[in-house]
Amino acid sequence: MFVRFDESVRGQTLFLVAKIHTPYENFFELLMTIDAARRSSAKEVILVIPYLAHSRQERRDGQRTSISSRMIADMIQLMGADRLITLDLHTNAIEGFYKIPVDPLSSLRLFIQHIQQSNIEPLCLCSPDFGGLKRVKRFKKELTASMVVMNKERLQPNSVSSMEIIGEVTGKNVVIIDDLVDTAGTLCKAADLLVEQGALSVRAYCTHGILSGKALETLMQSRIEKLIIADTVVEEINHPKIEVVSCAPVLAAAIENIIANRSLSQL
Questions:
Q1: 244, 235 Cβ separation under 8 angstroms
Q2: Other residues' Cβ atoms within 10 Å of the Cβ of residue 178
Q3: pLDDT class for 161, splitting at 50, 70, 90?
């Protein structure tokens, strides 16, 4: 792997837009690019990383494990990045790993516009766990909808042993709001339970569509009517139940605001 700027970047503010999830060569290439920018006397290096990989591993869940999100933070800062822009961090605790400014943008505006255009009534917003309640409440402020939360017990990663609904979903069109979908097992199990409890339909809005393992097959067999994801991981996908929404307008607005020294809080 070899990185070189073919024109001068001396004294320039540089925005590096990168997807650093698998293959891991992507992340190493980004580190090399930051280093090349620094050695080429760039004034400022700002990273735009739509999906910050390893964001679910921000603490030690057991003995003899790694805190890989801290490793990512250390490497990014060691190479000399000045700022990081990303979308929907899994947990805000990750900001504490960085000494540089971190701007975790939200897919709120992106998804609310899509929900409003879909005319889903009567609407009920669903948080897949208690950790996502704050996110769903922000959606509820912008929409006319009721709200429920799923209480789940997880014995191991990507596997849920039991699940129950706190709230009433009978006769309502349920929209699940989450930051990411991985194997889709938990999401599909939640959808099945919601339909069994009387929900008319179930849709899901998840920012990061990792879709690993048999996720596509699981979604096809589930009762989920539609899964809407941003293009932070995959840009295009051929699946009857999945729709991809571009996050480019949100990231572009953030870049524009930074250049003009305007606030990012509304994004």
A1: yes
A2: 23
A3: low
Task: Please identify which of the residues 134, 137, 141, 152 carries the catalytic annotation.
Answer: 152
**Coil vs helix vs strand at 48:** strand
Give the mean model confidence (pLDDT) for residues 226-246: 96
Q: In a 3-state reduction of DSSP, which class is residue 250?
A: helix
For the residues of 120-173, what is the DSSP string, one character each? -SSEEEEESSGGGHHHHHHHHHHS--EEEEEEEEEEETTEEEEEEEES--TT-E
CB neighbours of 7 closer than 8 A, spacing ≥ 6?
A: none
The residue whose two tokens read 């939360």 is 149
Contacts of 130 (CB under 8 A, 6+ apart): 149, 151
Q: What is the pLDDT of residues 196-226, one digit of tens each?
A: 999 999 999 999 999 999 999 999 999 999 9
SS3 of the chain: helix, strand, coil, percent, to 5: 35, 25, 40
What is the Cα–Cα distance from 90 to 33, expressed in whole angstroms? 26
- 152 part of the active site: yes
Amino acid at 29: E
